[in-house]
Each structure stands twice: as C-alpha cells, then as structure tokens.
Design a protein that fits this description.
Length: about 160
C-alpha cells in the first residue's frame, strides 16, 4: 500500500523502445514512479546525448502509464562540465527533458542553496534534489521551491 518509486538507472537499455518496455514492466510490478538518468558511467563521455534521453522519455510517456517520470541529469553528480558551465548545462537538459514529457527533474549533486535557487529560477516544472550532509534543511528547500527530495543510499550506508 506504500507508493514505490524505482531507479531505472539509464533505463536498462540503449534504445528508447527497450527503456519504454522496462518502464512498462516496472509499472506492471506496481511502481508509481521511475528515475531515468542521463549518466553513462563512461569516463570519456559521462552524459548521454540529450536527444537520446529525450527519446527515452518520450517513448515512456507515449505508453500513458500511471507512473511519474523523474528525469535525472547528472551534470553536477558527475562534474560533467566545467564548474562555470554546469548551471547552463543543467538548465538546457532539464528543460529539454521536461518538454519531452518528464514530470519532475532530478539533479543530484546540486547541494548548496545558491545552486539550488539558481536551478529553480531556470527550470520550469518540479525539481528533485538529493539530500545529503551538505544539503540545506527541508524548510529551506521548501522555501526555494523544491518539490521532491530523495534520500538515495544514505539510509542504507548509515545502517551499515
């Protein structure tokens, strides 16, 4: 009876069709939200092509599943661009993903109030941040207009 959101990483597939099929399987299992990320885990190319990410989101959205699509950009998490250009890269990616049909934009690694406030100003639609030891309080995040907060693996690591 508790809503569950699943982290589908990069969709567990390279093609939009495979990602959509995996989202369909997750929804059939009862998942009400999914994360799909643009990180590649490749050191020489840390982020996937923006168009491919848009196509993945669009393919999932076309299924009309009762699932929230939380599109994750790893610009900050993977230090993908030069520090001075990360904010603009995050804006560009986030807004493209929203236009493709993402319901929320997840930006892990953005953990200071100034960066988060800047993201809020440049991104239309709900924003999700990753809570951590340097993240502002829930009250401050709420005041900044952040709609969703994820814990990630922090509770698991704390338990260990």
């Amino acid at each position: 009876d508790i809503p569950v959101s699943a982290d589908l990483e990069a969709g567990y597939g390279q093609t939009p069709e495979t990602v959509a099929e995996n989202a369909k399987k997750a929804a059939a299992a009862g998942v009400v939200g999914i994360n799909i990320e643009d990180g590649t885990k490749e050191p020489c190319r840390p982020l996937c092509d923006e168009t491919l990410m848009e196509e993945k989101i669009t393919a999932v959205k076309k299924l009309n599943l009762p699932v929230l699509i939380n599109a994750r950009t790893d610009v900050y998490w993977l230090n993908a661009d030069a520090p001075g250009s990360r904010l603009q890269a995050a804006f560009r990616r986030a807004n493209r993903y929203s236009q493709a049909g993402a319901d929320c934009i997840f930006i892990p690694g953005a953990d200071d109030a100034g960066t988060i406030a800047g993201l809020r100003k440049g991104i239309s639609g709900p924003i999700n941040v990753l809570a951590g030891s340097h993240t502002p309080s829930l009250q401050i995040l709420s005041e900044l207009g952040i709609e969703r907060i994820s814990c990630g693996s922090a509770p698991f690591r704390a338990a260990l």
